[in-house]
Write a structure and sequence with these properties.
heterodimer, A: 436 residues, alpha/beta, 5-stranded parallel beta sheet, 15 helices, B: 166 residues, 28% helix, binds iron/sulfur cluster
């Protein structure tokens, strides 16, 4: 019988015929921690007197509190630096970037099993890797014994066809899907994205889909590894690590969800849950105190280019703050080369160092009581950005950038229409090269 | 094992951000201190007024969101004997078992704030003494039961030197 992507990867890595519902023990290729979950993992290992890692790649990312805003977190960073040195794990320092962007740029390859002490580890599923988030003890054990256990998930195939309207992006698509199936619509399942639209989609847009699979409760968000994946790995200097990874044609899916993207409008997730999504018309005119463009969801060069096109020669609204955070050092450098950072700064933005930035309320841009933030992140739970009295709305980088200019939630299609009419060239003039 | 205690009732979609808010990120290496803020953004009264042995009872998708194992850990440290919900989010479920916090999946509509419960973890029978009714829990998968019975994942690996799931 044919196999889904999840079944194929887990079969190979467990050495047994893995079918949905089976319990398997699989080899771990990449085990990763960030600075919020790593310290607990390391302490668990210290209890067992273990200080050597065994997974092929074991990595600690200092990204959530980067640089550290408090002495407690500085001490946590010290613990992780010290353990990395002793154990043979790799350390990704403050300023190197967000765990999930770093993983896809530099570490994960198609067919890998990746476990990360962070729920958005599913991002790497876009490379055709079985990548999933777990808690500290699970990742710590996987890191030092080089394997972990899985229940092989049933798969929902998401078949995506049609062409996006201009001003509508993969972020709108994934918000739409989550709104449709709900925050627990795919609990314990694998999402497998495919179809014509995915085949034509850039790697960066694909990462957005896989990144947010967990917001529908899914264990993984998989996409076949194809030509686009190959080009991406090549741009990262890792062409040799590419391989095709596709599901069988006769794979058995628990459910097939079909979406025609041409019908999708820009979407907004309203507070305080990600599945509380509505078309942008429902939010239009909502005053915004802060706009945040960044995160492991939408802090890549493609996102920054889209935002810069909209912000070029414009200014943020007087009482709307704008925060831009490139997801990694590579992206930061690229944005610098392309002149995007200048556009942001001239538009009145503050640019923060690569990392999670204000996403999880640790530092940088914590909201005040009653304030509204329009964010390109993946979560808007109550308290998410450091204040339970604040409100977080989620959208695409285009919606975020245009709303920053207007000071209220605004439909980026308006601007695109206007630009077309006035025949203004709104582009940055250069093309991105190299590692995106 | 029979657990006894009073109910603290919560709604659907209790995220790990509500259980363990990001603004206390700096307390993650100080679990007893972090536990003083457990579920604070869902119910400000809970942490200060709950008694050891009490139950957290909720609706659907309890524990959705981030992978922070601190969430089930501080529920346990606070003294909660078990969490009962209609359904649990995936990562939270696995984390809770790993840290030895019992989870009971059952229909929680007939359980209200302040009810007295007796939960028999071995039979899966929940007695609501206040309402004089009995409810039945869904059973844990065998792999997870093995880990829970060993006292969590660390103890499981220490005991067997490897995963021993069947
Ligand atoms: S950017 Fe936000 S969602 Fe992504 S890893 Fe950092 S805190 Fe988590």
């Amino acid at each position: 019988m044919g196999k889904t992507l999840a079944e194929k990867i887990l079969s190979e890595k467990s050495g047994q015929d893995a079918c949905a519902g089976d319990i398997v023990i699989a080899k771990v290729d990449v085990a990763a921690f960030q600075d919020g979950t790593g310290p607990l993992g390391v302490r668990q290992l210290q209890k067992m007197n273990i200080n050597k890692v065994k997974a092929a790649k074991s990595i600690f990312f200092l990204d959530h509190a980067a640089p550290s805003p408090r002495k407690e977190l500085s001490n946590d960073h010290m613990l992780l630096r010290e353990f990395s040195k002793k154990s043979g794990a790799i350390l990704s320092e403050i300023g190197d970037g967000v765990i999930h962007q770093r993983l896809v740029e530099s570490f994960v390859k198609p067919g890998d099993v990746v476990i990360g002490g962070d729920s958005h580890t599913c991002t790497a599923g876009a490379l055709g890797a079985f990548a999933t988030g777990m808690g500290s003890t699970d990742v710590a054990i996987g890191m030092v014994i080089g394997k972990t256990w899985f229940k092989v998930p049933e798969t929902f195939r998401v078949e995506i066809n049609g062409k996006f309207q201009s001003g509508v992006y993969s972020k709108d698509l994934i918000l739409y899907l989550i709104g449709m199936i709900g925050a627990d619509g795919a609990t314990y399942k694998a999402l497998e994205f495919g179809g014509e639209t995915i085949e034509k989609m850039s790697m960066e847009s694909r990462f957005v889909l896989s990144n947010m699979a967990v917001e529908a409760g899914a264990k993984v968000g998989l996409i076949a590894s194809d030509k686009t994946t190959r080009e991406y790995l090549k741009s990262c200097g890792r062409l040799k690590e590419w391989k095709a990874q596709i599901p069988d044609i006769d794979a058995k899916y628990e459910k097939i969800i079909k979406i025609d993207v041409s019908k999708i409008e820009p979407q907004i997730a309203f507070p305080h849950t990600v599945d509380n999504t509505r078309p942008i018309s429902a939010a239009k005119g909502k005053k915004v105190d802060q706009v945040f463009i960044g995160t492991c969801t939408n802090g890549r060069i493609e996102d920054l280019e889209i935002a810069a096109k909209i912000l070029k020669g414009k200014k943020r609204a007087f009482d709307t703050r704008l925060i831009v955070v490139p997801a990694s050092r590579e992206i930061y450098l690229n944005a610098m080369k392309l002149g995007l950072l200048k556009i942001f700064v001239q538009a009145g933005a503050i640019i923060m160092g690569p990392g999670c930035g204000p996403c999880v309320g640790v530092h940088e841009g914590v909201l005040g009581d009653g304030e509204v933030c329009l964010s390109t992140a993946n979560r808007n739970f109550k308290g998410r950005m450091g204040n339970p009295e604040a409100f977080v709305y989620l959208a695409s980088p285009a919606t975020a950038a245009y709303s920053a200019i207007k000071g209220k939630i605004s439909d980026p299609r308006e601007m695109i229409k206007k630009a077309k009419k006035e025949k203004i060239m709104v582009n940055t003039g250069k093309k991105a090269k190299g590692n995106r | 094992m029979i657990l006894k205690g009073k109910v603290w009732k919560f709604g659907d979609s209790i995220s790990t951000d509500l259980i363990c808010p990001g603004r206390y990120f700096h307390l993650r290496s100080n679990l007893p201190e972090l536990a003083k803020h457990v579920l604070e953004d869902a119910d400000t009264q809970f942490a200060s007024n709950m008694a050891k042995g009490d139950f957290v009872v909720a609706g659907n998708n309890f524990g959705l969101g981030s992978s922070r194992e601190h969430a089930p850990t501080i529920i346990k440290i606070a003294g909660v004997s078990a969490v009962l919900a209609k359904s649990f989010a995936r990562i939270f479920f696995r984390n809770a078992i790993n840290v030895g916090l019992p989870l009971v999946e059952c229909d929680t509509d007939k359980i209200d704030q302040g009810d007295e419960l007796e939960v028999n973890l071995s039979t899966g029978i929940i007695r609501n003494k206040t309402k004089s009714i009995e409810l039945e829990a869904h059973f844990l998968p065998k792999a997870m039961l093995n880990i829970l019975n060993d006292g969590g994942l660390l103890a499981h690996i220490q005991k067997h030197g490897d995963f021993k799931l069947d």
